[in-house]
């Protein structure tokens, strides 16, 4: 289950990316999620996915 609250989502996604997945696409494939939906949820917080760091920064 992916958190709905954007702040909790940010922590959840960045932790998963750091500990378990080599890319946002890999994470989303495993969780059956859409990368665009996650990016859209975090954009209002001014966080954007950086593939070089494999984190939302």
Gist?
Helix content is 53%, strand content 7%. The chain is mainly α and 57 residues long.
Describe the structure.
The structure is a single chain. This protein has 57 residues and is mainly alpha-helical. It is built from three helices and two strands. Strands 1-2 form a two-stranded antiparallel ribbon. Strand 1 (49-50) and strand 2 (55-56) form a beta hairpin. The longest helix is centred in the N-terminal third of the chain and has 14 residues, at 6-19. The radius of gyration is 10 Å and the shape is globular. The termini are far apart. The mean pLDDT is 98.
**Count of helical stretches:** 3
Strand order within the widest beta sheet: 1-2
CA-to-CA gap between the ends? Answer: 22 Å
Biggest sheet record: 2 strands, antiparallel
Weakly predicted, low-confidence segments: none
Query: Care to count the β-strands?
Result: 2
The global form is: globular
Task: Give the helix proportion (percent range).
Answer: 40-55%
Rg, please? Answer: 10 Å
Strand content: 5-15%
- Summed over residues and divided by their number, the pLDDT gives a mean of 98
Instruction: Indicate the structural class.
Output: mainly alpha
Order of helices and strands: HHHEE
